[in-house]
Design brief:
19% strand, 12 helices, D-Maltodextrin-Binding Protein, domain 2, alpha/beta, 342 residues, 49% helix
Length: 342
């Protein structure tokens, strides 16, 4: 009797499992770079964790999400290409990866333009952004941008000379990425841009080949920059933006109720991911100070001076790469956003 009862229960469980699996009408493969971290320590992993949970619940199991951490689907560039080709459904990647498909996305990385995380998130997720930048990205390359968050801003570090105002960096050699706009930024500060690969940064700073560099707080901590640099100024000159993208063909092919489930899951996941960014950056800034770095927070006036110094030449350069009318529209929209704010 017990054997028959156990067999019946087992059969029922298998039937339920099969029904749940069979009920997944749509499958979303989501790729991103981080791996082997708890959700609380990575905005990408937190986003994936929450998105999967919410969309599967709200779709009643009709959508199944498969998470591929550690670039398991291929390099970031390869996965982005696969989303464009509609062979991968979703990904989380930095905004720089969209520039080869549409240069207009460069507008959100203009040095000295955006003040803080809130402003960055507001502008990136604005109606203006979707109408003037992301719609074309969707039509021409199959990328539907669900949203974006600020991963943190890039800041300057130096050894031996503290920075408070742009005058303090004059004459120093500063490592930058191989980017014409970043070179313009350093030149605007009357400093000397030195283009080096990321793998060469630490040794160059340790040996005095360069006096400093610029990077995000997370990278400054992970790269152990505090071992070879003793000053950090939180001037926040360029935002890092993580974008959440889905194949437009896949998304538009979903029934209306499932598109709504995706939108709601994205909203919930972005909210939790944003909390991770704020907590991590605050904690790491404290750790950098405890590790011996002098961390300087500029006054609003000092920060504005940094931004006002680097923005004009960088903006002039950007106007040679994208339509000036787009830049004008972006500046006007940013002005509207700031209306009534200090």
């Amino acid at each position: 009797m017990m054997g028959k009862r156990f067999a019946a229960v087992l059969f029922a469980l298998c039937l339920v499992a099969f029904t749940v699996q069979a009920g997944a009408e749509y499958k979303i493969k989501m790729g991103y770079s981080p791996g082997n971290l708890p959700p609380e320590d990575s905005m990408e992993i937190m986003y994936g964790h929450i998105f999967k949970k919410v969309v599967e619940e709200k779709s009643g199991g009709r959508i199944e999400v498969e998470i591929y951490q550690s670039d398991a689907l291929g390099s970031a560039g390869d996965t982005v290409g696969a989303i464009s080709a509609n062979s991968v459904e979703m990904g989380q990647y930095e905004i720089a990866l969209w520039a080869p498909y549409n240069r207009n996305t460069m507008i959100f990385s203009l040095p000295g333009m955006l003040r803080d995380k809130d402003e960055t998130v507001a502008m990136f997720n604005s109606d203006w952004a979707y109408e003037n930048v992301f719609n074309e990205l969707e039509l021409k390359a199959n990328f539907k941008i669900l949203g974006g968050l600020c991963k943190g801003f890039r800041d300057f570090t130096t050894k031996g000379r503290p920075l408070k105002t742009p005058a303090d960096i004059k004459g120093l050699s500063i490592r930058v990425m191989d980017s014409p706009m970043y070179v313009k930024m350093i030149e605007a500060l009357s400093a000397n841009p030195i283009i080096l690969a990321g793998s060469e940064m630490y040794t160059a700073m340790k040996n005095g080949v360069v006096d400093g560099h610029e990077n995000a707080v997370l990278s400054i901590w992970q790269d152990k920059t505090y071992e070879v640099q003793d000053n950090l100024i939180l001037d926040e000159h360029v935002p890092g933006i993580l974008t959440f993208v889905i194949s437009a063909k896949f998304y538009n092919g979903l029934p209306a109720d499932l598109r709504k489930a995706v939108d709601e899951a994205n909203k919930a996941a972005m909210a939790e991911s944003h909390k991770v960014v704020l907590r991590i950056e605050s904690e790491l800034t404290k750790r950098l100070a405890e590790s011996g770095m002098t961390v300087y927070v500029p006054t609003p006036e000092e920060k504005k001076l940094w931004h006002d110094t680097i923005r004009p030449p960088c903006e002039a350069f950007l106007r040679t790469r994208i339509d000036s009318k787009l830049v004008d529209g972006y500046v006007a929209e940013l002005g509207k956003h700031r209306t009534g704010k200090p």
